[in-house]
Amino acid sequence: MKRNKKVALTATALSLSAILAACGTDEEKTTTSTADGEKELNLLITSEPPSLHPQLASDTTSGAILENAFEGLTTMKNGEPVLGAAEDYIVSDDLLTYTFKLRDAQWSNGEKVTAEDFAYAWLWALNPENASEYSTILYPIKGAEAYNNAKASAEDVAINVIDEKTLEVTLEAPTPYFLELTAFKTFFPIHKATAEANPKWYTEADTYVGNGAYTLSSWNHSGDIVLEKSETYWDAANVAIDTVNVAMVESETTQMTMYDAGEVDFLGAPYGTISLDAIDRLKSEDALNVTDLAGIYWYKFNTKDPVMQNENIRKALTLAIDREALVSNIVKGEQPPALGMVPDSVAGFGDDEGYFKDADFAEAKKYLEAGLKELGLASAKDLEVKVSYNTSEAHSSIAQFIQQGWTSELGITVKLDNAEWQVYLDKLSNGDFQIGRLGWGADYNDAYSFLEMYNSATNGNNQTGWSNDEYTNLLKASTTETDAAKRTEMLQQAEEIIMEEMPVAPVYYQTNLFISHDNVENMAPDALGNINLKFVDVK
Questions:
Q1: Which of 3, 127, 156, 410 is deepest in the core (most CB within 10 A)?
Q2: pLDDT tens digits for 123-165?
């Protein structure tokens, strides 16, 4: 597939700042504070968190809780890493060795947070027996990849506990975003003694031990989670909210009703989803906020499936999506159509050309004809594909729109398959799908965050079964390339390879849509979608 000039985006899509609006509605709030003056914040998540283990979680729902119950060596504030559990750090002249000095901090059970707790957690994630889907994010550490692939031992990983409060980490190569990584959930510590005594410590509130600004006060599974300000947290004096009530509500319509009724204070990822039906109203009320997000919405193809292993079929389906119409008529969040894997907001990719033309039905039909011939099918009506997605009004609407387009433009049969979130994730992991929807937000603001998950068929975040040796080698080489321009060129070459074979159909680059009541302060997601509740306040 030849590289084509990216279709010009509308001025509206490019100028997100033009639609930024002031937060709030005129709804009267009744749950801002308790009778004794303590401050409360009422939020939503869409489902039971799949896992509240920092090294096992791979989704934003779990992350929304984990990022407040734990704290890494650094934490994110206004899109930048700032000191968290570490009070200081030094970097060697060759930019390979980081030495972190920990604060005098405590776990929620009152015990000291130690360097050993960090080392234990990171090595736990890298242990291949633990099947951490995010283990690869630790690969910048020297020896990490070899250990994770059972080619070395834990002792070969360059994580050294100097003393109780000093952790030394040596990298394979200079990694400019390493401090951002140390704020990510996979880099959170674990209370070693608790984990060794009870391997299921993370499944119930009464056994849960964290080091973050909030403790897991209660956990009513599939119902709600209550977070309480941790009195053992080192910076508790600067945490404004005393109690965070997090209800689990699947329906976007119900979420919107609760917000309008003043029952929740904020609505928008990762704390719920704004109903598509409400977007036009919220815009007219000047209540909707739209900000840039380093993320993408895509459809993944199961390349182990007898039909989806056909490259021409994958290309036909990818080109036969009308992204502009989808954004204008369905999702309505000013999302730029995705014509590549890496969003324009990522450094070095802002001027990148797209790899195909949006809604290129004529070209799609050519690929379809070739694919049908290779599959031994007489005509398009003989081809049936299935699109899977997790329960959500938004995902359902998107799937129906794409289903209609593929049916009308290509003449194929498209079936829809819906499942609850955890069941859906299990289906993807087990390869029980043909085409599955997922969103991906960058873990750090670098193209590698969007490309790395496809570095091997066994990567836990891949799910497509696709791999390509040249692609893998380019990514690996980029991790040791110190020349920024050369590294960017390697990543661009890798993107070109994956877009040529198309195990993934990019749909749109994400934006962040959120609303909040007038009493909420400092609760706006950054470009990575992070919201640290430590910095939030209510009037």
A1: 410
A2: 999 999 999 989 999 999 999 999 999 999 999 999 999 999 9
DSSP state of 108: T
Domain positions in the chain are 11-16+292-511, 47-241
CATH number of 11-16+292-511: 3.10.105.10
Sign of CA dihedral 472, 132, 52, 420: positive
Question: Which residues, 6 or more positions from 93, have their beta carbon under 8 angstroms from its beta carbon?
Answer: none
Topology given in CATH for the domain delimited by 47-241: Dipeptide-binding Protein; domain 1 (3.90.76)
Residue 416 CA to its chain's centroid (Å)? 24
Q: Are 520 and 344 in contact (CB under 8 A)?
A: no
By the 10 Å C-beta count (0-12 exposed, 13-18 middle, 19+ buried), 395 is classed as buried
Q: Which residues contact 288 (CB under 8 A, 6 or more apart)?
A: 19, 21, 274, 279, 282, 513, 515
Whole-number Å distance between alpha carbons of 265 and 267: 7
Residues 6+ apart with CB under 8 A from 233: 71, 105, 106, 211, 212, 213, 214, 239
Contact 27, 257 (CB under 8 A): no
Chain CA centroid to CA 69, Å: 18
Of 427, 417, 475, nearest to 145 by C-alpha is 475
pLDDT in tens, 423-481: 999 999 999 999 999 999 888 878 998 999 999 898 888 999 999 999 999 998 998 88
Q: What angle do CA 123, 128, 131 make, to 5 degrees?
A: 100
3-state secondary structure 262-286: CCCCEEECCECCCCHHHHHHHHHCC
CA 238 and chain centroid, separation: 28
Token pair 């504070």 is at which residue? 33
290, 511 in Cβ contact below 8 A?
yes
Q: What is the DSSP string of 504-526?
A: EEEEEEEEEEEEE-TTEES----
- Residue 353 is predicted with a pLDDT of 67
* SS3 call for 167: strand
Q: How far is CA 383 from CA 69, 172, 295, in A?
A: 48, 47, 32
pLDDT at residue 27 in the model? 37
Query: Given this model, what pLDDT does residue 446 score?
Result: 86
Omega into 174 within 30° of 0, i.e. cis?
Answer: no
Confirm if 132 and 125 have CB atoms less than 8 A apart.
Answer: yes
Cα dist from 25 to 189, 282, 283, 289, whole Å: 39, 10, 12, 12
Q: Which long-range contacts (C-beta less than 8 Å, at least 24 apart) are formed by 400-407?
A: 401/325, 401/326, 401/329, 401/330, 402/299, 402/321, 402/326, 405/320, 405/321, 405/322, 406/317, 406/320
Residues of the chain predicted below pLDDT 50? 1-31
